[in-house]
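Closing statement on the pyridoxal-5'-phosphate sub-project.
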Amino acid sequence: MRTIGNKDYEFGDEIRLWSAFVHEDAIRAVAETLRSGWINTGKKEKELREKVMKKWGFPYCVACNTGTAALRTALAVLGIGPGDEVVSTPYTFIATNTAILEQGARPVFADINYDDLNINPQSTEKQITPKTKAIMIVHYGGNPCDLDEIRAIGKRHKLPVIEDAAHAMGSKYKGNYIGSTGDIICFSLQVVKIITSGDGGLISTTREDWYQELKKTIWYGIDRDAKRNNLLDPLPDNFKGDTLGFKYNMNDIAASLASANIDHFDEAIGRRREVGEKYRRELAGCKKIKLMNYKPDREPSYQIFPIHVRDRQKFAEHMWKHKIMVNVNNRRNDMYPMFGGLRNDLPNLKRAEEDVILLPINYDLTDGQVDHVIEVMKDYDNM
Ligand SMILES: Cc1ncc(COP(=O)(O)O)c(C=O)c1O
Protein backbone atom coordinates (compact mmCIF):
# COMPACT_ATOMS: atom_id res chain seq x y z
CA MET A 1 0.00 0.00 0.00
CA ARG A 2 1.12 3.53 -0.69
CA THR A 3 -0.40 6.63 0.83
CA ILE A 4 -1.08 9.65 -1.34
CA GLY A 5 -2.75 12.50 0.48
CA ASN A 6 -4.95 10.73 2.98
CA LYS A 7 -5.78 7.75 0.75
CA ASP A 8 -4.09 4.39 0.32
CA TYR A 9 -3.54 2.91 -3.09
CA GLU A 10 -2.70 -0.63 -3.99
CA PHE A 11 0.24 -1.11 -6.36
CA GLY A 12 -0.09 -3.82 -8.96
CA ASP A 13 -2.83 -3.36 -11.51
CA GLU A 14 -2.46 0.35 -12.26
CA ILE A 15 -1.49 1.66 -15.68
CA ARG A 16 2.25 1.98 -15.40
CA LEU A 17 4.52 4.86 -16.33
CA TRP A 18 7.30 2.52 -17.41
CA SER A 19 7.90 -0.88 -18.89
CA ALA A 20 11.01 -2.70 -20.03
CA PHE A 21 11.22 -3.47 -23.75
CA VAL A 22 12.86 -6.87 -24.13
CA HIS A 23 12.20 -8.54 -27.47
CA GLU A 24 12.09 -12.35 -27.70
CA ASP A 25 15.03 -12.11 -30.12
CA ALA A 26 17.01 -10.39 -27.38
CA ILE A 27 16.33 -13.23 -24.95
CA ARG A 28 17.57 -15.68 -27.58
CA ALA A 29 20.63 -13.53 -28.29
CA VAL A 30 21.58 -13.40 -24.62
CA ALA A 31 21.20 -17.17 -24.28
CA GLU A 32 23.41 -17.63 -27.34
CA THR A 33 26.09 -15.40 -25.86
CA LEU A 34 25.93 -17.19 -22.52
CA ARG A 35 26.49 -20.50 -24.31
CA SER A 36 29.22 -19.15 -26.56
CA GLY A 37 32.11 -19.39 -24.12
CA TRP A 38 32.82 -15.63 -24.31
CA ILE A 39 30.75 -13.26 -22.16
CA ASN A 40 33.27 -10.49 -21.51
CA THR A 41 33.64 -7.44 -23.79
CA GLY A 42 34.11 -8.91 -27.25
CA LYS A 43 32.52 -9.29 -30.64
CA LYS A 44 28.96 -8.59 -29.42
CA GLU A 45 30.08 -5.28 -27.93
CA LYS A 46 31.77 -4.42 -31.22
CA GLU A 47 28.66 -5.44 -33.15
CA LEU A 48 26.55 -3.14 -30.95
CA ARG A 49 28.84 -0.16 -31.54
CA GLU A 50 28.93 -0.75 -35.27
CA LYS A 51 25.16 -1.09 -35.40
CA VAL A 52 24.45 2.21 -33.60
CA MET A 53 27.08 4.06 -35.63
CA LYS A 54 25.34 2.94 -38.80
CA LYS A 55 21.78 3.42 -37.54
CA TRP A 56 22.13 6.87 -35.97
CA GLY A 57 25.21 8.18 -37.73
CA PHE A 58 27.53 8.30 -34.71
CA PRO A 59 31.00 9.10 -36.08
CA TYR A 60 32.75 7.19 -33.24
CA CYS A 61 31.19 5.13 -30.48
CA VAL A 62 32.26 3.70 -27.12
CA ALA A 63 30.05 1.36 -25.07
CA CYS A 64 30.09 1.31 -21.28
CA ASN A 65 28.26 -0.20 -18.35
CA THR A 66 25.92 2.69 -17.41
CA GLY A 67 24.85 6.07 -18.69
CA THR A 68 26.32 7.63 -15.54
CA ALA A 69 29.66 6.03 -16.39
CA ALA A 70 29.38 7.48 -19.89
CA LEU A 71 28.93 10.98 -18.46
CA ARG A 72 31.79 10.65 -16.01
CA THR A 73 34.08 9.30 -18.71
CA ALA A 74 33.22 12.23 -20.99
CA LEU A 75 34.08 14.69 -18.23
CA ALA A 76 37.32 12.86 -17.41
CA VAL A 77 38.45 12.87 -21.04
CA LEU A 78 37.79 16.62 -21.24
CA GLY A 79 40.14 17.01 -18.29
CA ILE A 80 37.48 18.24 -15.87
CA GLY A 81 38.52 17.90 -12.25
CA PRO A 82 38.79 19.60 -8.85
CA GLY A 83 38.26 23.38 -8.92
CA ASP A 84 36.47 23.29 -12.28
CA GLU A 85 32.90 24.33 -12.95
CA VAL A 86 30.46 22.84 -15.42
CA VAL A 87 27.39 24.87 -16.35
CA SER A 88 24.55 22.39 -16.16
CA THR A 89 20.82 21.93 -15.94
CA PRO A 90 19.18 21.57 -12.54
CA TYR A 91 16.13 19.83 -14.00
CA THR A 92 17.28 16.26 -14.59
CA PHE A 93 17.91 12.97 -12.90
CA ILE A 94 20.72 13.55 -10.39
CA ALA A 95 23.12 11.34 -12.40
CA THR A 96 23.77 14.24 -14.81
CA ASN A 97 25.21 16.24 -11.95
CA THR A 98 26.61 13.53 -9.67
CA ALA A 99 28.91 12.63 -12.58
CA ILE A 100 30.34 16.17 -12.31
CA LEU A 101 30.79 15.78 -8.55
CA GLU A 102 32.48 12.40 -9.06
CA GLN A 103 35.14 14.20 -11.05
CA GLY A 104 35.67 16.62 -8.17
CA ALA A 105 34.16 19.50 -10.15
CA ARG A 106 31.06 21.59 -9.39
CA PRO A 107 27.83 21.92 -11.39
CA VAL A 108 26.71 25.55 -11.74
CA PHE A 109 23.05 25.61 -12.56
CA ALA A 110 21.46 27.65 -15.33
CA ASP A 111 17.70 28.20 -15.53
CA ILE A 112 15.53 26.09 -17.81
CA ASN A 113 12.86 26.93 -20.36
CA TYR A 114 9.49 26.53 -18.68
CA ASP A 115 7.90 25.30 -21.89
CA ASP A 116 10.21 22.33 -22.61
CA LEU A 117 12.21 21.88 -19.37
CA ASN A 118 15.50 22.09 -21.27
CA ILE A 119 18.41 24.31 -20.27
CA ASN A 120 17.92 27.94 -21.29
CA PRO A 121 20.69 29.21 -23.59
CA GLN A 122 20.74 32.83 -22.32
CA SER A 123 20.91 31.71 -18.70
CA THR A 124 23.62 29.20 -19.62
CA GLU A 125 25.84 31.93 -20.98
CA LYS A 126 25.32 34.05 -17.85
CA GLN A 127 26.70 31.28 -15.59
CA ILE A 128 30.05 31.06 -17.39
CA THR A 129 33.08 32.12 -15.34
CA PRO A 130 36.84 31.70 -15.84
CA LYS A 131 36.48 28.39 -13.96
CA THR A 132 33.95 26.95 -16.42
CA LYS A 133 35.35 24.00 -18.38
CA ALA A 134 32.25 22.61 -20.12
CA ILE A 135 28.52 22.92 -20.66
CA MET A 136 26.29 19.97 -19.77
CA ILE A 137 22.81 19.74 -21.29
CA VAL A 138 19.98 17.19 -21.15
CA HIS A 139 17.50 16.60 -23.95
CA TYR A 140 14.69 16.33 -21.44
CA GLY A 141 12.21 13.58 -22.18
CA GLY A 142 13.91 13.15 -25.54
CA ASN A 143 12.77 16.60 -26.71
CA PRO A 144 16.00 18.10 -28.06
CA CYS A 145 17.52 21.27 -26.58
CA ASP A 146 18.16 24.49 -28.51
CA LEU A 147 21.37 23.00 -29.87
CA ASP A 148 22.34 25.73 -32.34
CA GLU A 149 22.18 28.39 -29.63
CA ILE A 150 24.00 26.29 -27.03
CA ARG A 151 26.74 25.19 -29.44
CA ALA A 152 27.25 28.82 -30.47
CA ILE A 153 27.78 29.72 -26.79
CA GLY A 154 30.22 26.82 -26.47
CA LYS A 155 32.13 28.07 -29.50
CA ARG A 156 32.17 31.67 -28.29
CA HIS A 157 33.65 30.68 -24.94
CA LYS A 158 35.74 27.76 -26.25
CA LEU A 159 33.83 25.28 -24.11
CA PRO A 160 32.88 21.73 -25.14
CA VAL A 161 29.21 20.76 -24.88
CA ILE A 162 28.41 17.41 -23.30
CA GLU A 163 24.95 16.17 -24.21
CA ASP A 164 23.26 13.92 -21.69
CA ALA A 165 21.09 12.09 -24.21
CA ALA A 166 19.86 9.46 -21.73
CA HIS A 167 16.32 10.18 -22.95
CA ALA A 168 17.09 10.97 -26.56
CA MET A 169 17.94 7.81 -28.46
CA GLY A 170 16.39 8.20 -31.90
CA SER A 171 15.44 11.86 -31.34
CA LYS A 172 16.24 14.29 -34.15
CA TYR A 173 17.28 17.93 -34.19
CA LYS A 174 16.90 19.72 -37.53
CA GLY A 175 16.91 16.42 -39.41
CA ASN A 176 19.95 14.93 -37.65
CA TYR A 177 19.88 12.17 -35.08
CA ILE A 178 21.07 13.17 -31.62
CA GLY A 179 24.58 11.72 -31.40
CA SER A 180 25.42 12.28 -35.06
CA THR A 181 26.63 15.87 -34.51
CA GLY A 182 28.20 17.71 -31.58
CA ASP A 183 31.10 17.17 -29.18
CA ILE A 184 30.39 14.28 -26.79
CA ILE A 185 26.96 12.72 -26.49
CA CYS A 186 26.09 10.18 -23.78
CA PHE A 187 23.21 7.70 -23.88
CA SER A 188 21.75 5.37 -21.25
CA LEU A 189 20.61 1.79 -21.83
CA GLN A 190 19.12 1.44 -18.34
CA VAL A 191 15.99 -0.73 -17.97
CA VAL A 192 13.24 1.77 -18.77
CA LYS A 193 15.00 3.37 -21.71
CA ILE A 194 13.68 2.76 -25.23
CA ILE A 195 16.56 0.34 -25.76
CA THR A 196 17.99 -1.45 -22.76
CA SER A 197 20.99 -3.64 -22.13
CA GLY A 198 19.88 -4.22 -18.52
CA ASP A 199 22.23 -1.41 -17.62
CA GLY A 200 24.55 0.28 -20.05
CA GLY A 201 25.65 3.41 -21.82
CA LEU A 202 26.92 4.63 -25.17
CA ILE A 203 29.16 7.57 -25.94
CA SER A 204 29.24 9.18 -29.34
CA THR A 205 31.78 11.74 -30.44
CA THR A 206 32.70 13.47 -33.65
CA ARG A 207 36.38 13.75 -32.69
CA GLU A 208 38.85 10.93 -33.30
CA ASP A 209 41.26 12.09 -30.57
CA TRP A 210 38.50 12.12 -27.97
CA TYR A 211 37.36 8.69 -29.14
CA GLN A 212 40.85 7.28 -28.58
CA GLU A 213 40.84 8.63 -25.02
CA LEU A 214 37.24 7.62 -24.27
CA LYS A 215 37.83 4.01 -25.26
CA LYS A 216 40.90 3.79 -23.04
CA THR A 217 39.35 5.63 -20.11
CA ILE A 218 36.48 3.15 -19.80
CA TRP A 219 39.01 0.36 -19.30
CA TYR A 220 41.73 1.42 -16.84
CA GLY A 221 43.46 3.49 -19.52
CA ILE A 222 44.17 0.37 -21.57
CA ASP A 223 43.69 0.38 -25.34
CA ARG A 224 41.91 -2.89 -26.15
CA ASP A 225 42.79 -2.56 -29.84
CA ALA A 226 46.53 -2.10 -29.31
CA LYS A 227 49.09 -4.77 -30.19
CA ARG A 228 50.51 -7.23 -27.66
CA ASN A 229 53.92 -8.50 -28.67
CA ASN A 230 55.03 -9.78 -25.31
CA LEU A 231 53.63 -13.27 -24.79
CA LEU A 232 53.71 -13.06 -21.02
CA ASP A 233 52.37 -9.54 -20.43
CA PRO A 234 48.53 -9.47 -20.57
CA LEU A 235 48.54 -5.72 -21.25
CA PRO A 236 49.34 -4.14 -24.62
CA ASP A 237 52.78 -2.70 -25.34
CA ASN A 238 51.57 0.90 -25.38
CA PHE A 239 50.05 0.76 -21.85
CA LYS A 240 52.16 2.98 -19.63
CA GLY A 241 49.85 3.22 -16.60
CA ASP A 242 50.42 6.96 -16.36
CA THR A 243 46.74 8.03 -16.29
CA LEU A 244 43.90 6.70 -14.21
CA GLY A 245 41.06 4.99 -16.05
CA PHE A 246 37.85 3.33 -14.89
CA LYS A 247 36.28 -0.14 -15.07
CA TYR A 248 33.28 0.88 -17.15
CA ASN A 249 33.42 -1.48 -20.15
CA MET A 250 30.26 -3.20 -21.41
CA ASN A 251 30.27 -7.00 -21.46
CA ASP A 252 28.90 -9.15 -24.28
CA ILE A 253 25.84 -10.29 -22.31
CA ALA A 254 24.61 -6.70 -22.01
CA ALA A 255 25.71 -5.89 -25.57
CA SER A 256 23.80 -8.79 -27.12
CA LEU A 257 20.64 -7.77 -25.25
CA ALA A 258 20.89 -4.17 -26.55
CA SER A 259 21.97 -5.19 -30.02
CA ALA A 260 19.02 -7.54 -30.60
CA ASN A 261 16.62 -4.97 -29.10
CA ILE A 262 17.94 -2.32 -31.50
CA ASP A 263 16.84 -4.51 -34.41
CA HIS A 264 13.31 -3.76 -33.15
CA PHE A 265 13.93 -0.09 -32.34
CA ASP A 266 11.51 1.26 -34.93
CA GLU A 267 8.70 -0.80 -33.42
CA ALA A 268 9.66 0.30 -29.88
CA ILE A 269 9.83 4.02 -30.67
CA GLY A 270 6.89 3.79 -33.05
CA ARG A 271 4.53 2.81 -30.24
CA ARG A 272 5.78 5.65 -28.04
CA ARG A 273 5.24 8.10 -30.89
CA GLU A 274 1.66 6.87 -31.42
CA VAL A 275 0.88 7.34 -27.73
CA GLY A 276 2.70 10.68 -27.43
CA GLU A 277 1.03 12.10 -30.49
CA LYS A 278 -2.40 10.95 -29.35
CA TYR A 279 -1.91 12.66 -25.96
CA ARG A 280 -0.88 15.82 -27.79
CA ARG A 281 -3.92 15.74 -30.06
CA GLU A 282 -6.44 14.86 -27.39
CA LEU A 283 -5.17 17.05 -24.56
CA ALA A 284 -4.33 20.17 -26.54
CA GLY A 285 -7.57 21.91 -25.59
CA CYS A 286 -7.44 21.27 -21.83
CA LYS A 287 -7.53 24.31 -19.54
CA LYS A 288 -5.74 22.83 -16.55
CA ILE A 289 -3.09 20.99 -18.54
CA LYS A 290 -0.28 22.51 -20.57
CA LEU A 291 1.68 20.31 -22.94
CA MET A 292 5.40 20.72 -23.52
CA ASN A 293 6.49 22.78 -26.50
CA TYR A 294 7.61 20.34 -29.19
CA LYS A 295 9.27 22.60 -31.72
CA PRO A 296 8.59 21.72 -35.37
CA ASP A 297 12.31 21.37 -36.24
CA ARG A 298 12.76 18.48 -33.74
CA GLU A 299 11.52 14.90 -33.43
CA PRO A 300 11.16 13.73 -29.84
CA SER A 301 11.65 10.12 -28.71
CA TYR A 302 8.94 10.40 -26.01
CA GLN A 303 11.15 8.56 -23.54
CA ILE A 304 8.88 10.19 -20.96
CA PHE A 305 5.82 12.42 -21.30
CA PRO A 306 5.95 15.38 -18.89
CA ILE A 307 3.13 17.93 -18.72
CA HIS A 308 2.36 21.02 -16.63
CA VAL A 309 -0.78 20.65 -14.56
CA ARG A 310 -2.77 22.96 -12.36
CA ASP A 311 -3.11 21.80 -8.73
CA ARG A 312 -0.75 18.86 -9.13
CA GLN A 313 -1.52 17.15 -5.83
CA LYS A 314 -5.24 17.01 -6.64
CA PHE A 315 -4.45 15.77 -10.14
CA ALA A 316 -2.23 12.97 -8.80
CA GLU A 317 -4.94 11.85 -6.39
CA HIS A 318 -7.49 11.83 -9.21
CA MET A 319 -5.25 9.78 -11.50
CA TRP A 320 -4.25 7.25 -8.82
CA LYS A 321 -7.92 6.86 -7.85
CA HIS A 322 -8.48 5.72 -11.43
CA LYS A 323 -5.51 3.38 -11.23
CA ILE A 324 -3.21 5.46 -13.36
CA MET A 325 0.34 5.85 -12.14
CA VAL A 326 1.67 9.40 -12.33
CA ASN A 327 4.64 10.92 -10.59
CA VAL A 328 7.23 13.62 -10.66
CA ASN A 329 10.23 12.26 -12.49
CA ASN A 330 12.89 14.58 -11.16
CA ARG A 331 13.17 17.20 -8.45
CA ARG A 332 15.16 20.37 -8.92
CA ASN A 333 18.69 19.17 -8.24
CA ASP A 334 19.71 22.24 -6.22
CA MET A 335 17.41 21.05 -3.42
CA TYR A 336 20.02 18.38 -2.67
CA PRO A 337 22.76 19.83 -0.45
CA MET A 338 25.54 17.93 -2.26
CA PHE A 339 25.07 20.32 -5.19
CA GLY A 340 25.84 23.41 -3.12
CA GLY A 341 22.50 24.78 -1.98
CA LEU A 342 19.17 26.10 -3.19
CA ARG A 343 19.20 28.82 -5.84
CA ASN A 344 16.68 31.64 -5.69
CA ASP A 345 17.44 33.09 -9.10
CA LEU A 346 15.98 30.40 -11.38
CA PRO A 347 12.32 31.42 -11.87
CA ASN A 348 11.41 28.94 -14.60
CA LEU A 349 12.83 26.08 -12.58
CA LYS A 350 10.74 27.20 -9.61
CA ARG A 351 7.55 27.12 -11.67
CA ALA A 352 8.35 23.72 -13.22
CA GLU A 353 9.18 22.24 -9.83
CA GLU A 354 5.63 23.03 -8.74
CA ASP A 355 3.57 21.76 -11.67
CA VAL A 356 5.34 19.12 -13.80
CA ILE A 357 4.15 15.53 -13.72
CA LEU A 358 4.60 12.50 -15.99
CA LEU A 359 1.90 10.60 -17.83
CA PRO A 360 2.30 6.88 -18.59
CA ILE A 361 4.13 6.22 -21.83
CA ASN A 362 5.66 2.90 -22.71
CA TYR A 363 5.68 0.19 -25.35
CA ASP A 364 3.20 -2.06 -23.51
CA LEU A 365 0.32 0.42 -23.16
CA THR A 366 -2.81 -0.81 -24.93
CA ASP A 367 -5.09 1.48 -26.94
CA GLY A 368 -7.74 0.97 -24.23
CA GLN A 369 -5.34 2.13 -21.52
CA VAL A 370 -4.32 5.21 -23.49
CA ASP A 371 -7.99 6.10 -24.03
CA HIS A 372 -8.64 5.60 -20.32
CA VAL A 373 -5.79 7.98 -19.39
CA ILE A 374 -7.16 10.61 -21.77
CA GLU A 375 -10.71 10.23 -20.50
CA VAL A 376 -9.68 10.50 -16.84
CA MET A 377 -7.61 13.59 -17.66
CA LYS A 378 -10.53 15.24 -19.44
CA ASP A 379 -12.65 14.51 -16.36
CA TYR A 380 -10.07 16.31 -14.26
CA ASP A 381 -10.08 19.21 -16.64
CA ASN A 382 -13.84 19.56 -16.26
CA MET A 383 -13.89 19.21 -12.46
C1 LIG B 1 18.81 12.37 -17.73
C2 LIG B 1 19.53 11.15 -17.22
N1 LIG B 1 20.88 11.18 -17.18
C3 LIG B 1 21.59 10.12 -16.77
C4 LIG B 1 20.97 8.96 -16.36
C5 LIG B 1 21.81 7.84 -15.86
O1 LIG B 1 21.76 6.74 -16.67
P1 LIG B 1 22.12 5.29 -16.08
O2 LIG B 1 20.99 4.86 -15.21
O3 LIG B 1 22.26 4.44 -17.30
O4 LIG B 1 23.39 5.41 -15.33
C6 LIG B 1 19.58 8.88 -16.39
C7 LIG B 1 18.91 7.65 -15.97
O5 LIG B 1 17.76 7.50 -15.86
C8 LIG B 1 18.85 10.00 -16.83
O6 LIG B 1 17.51 10.00 -16.86
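The domain at 265-381 is CATH 3.90.1150.10 (Aspartate Aminotransferase, domain 1). With this model delivered, the sub-project is considered complete and its resources will be redirected to Aim 3.
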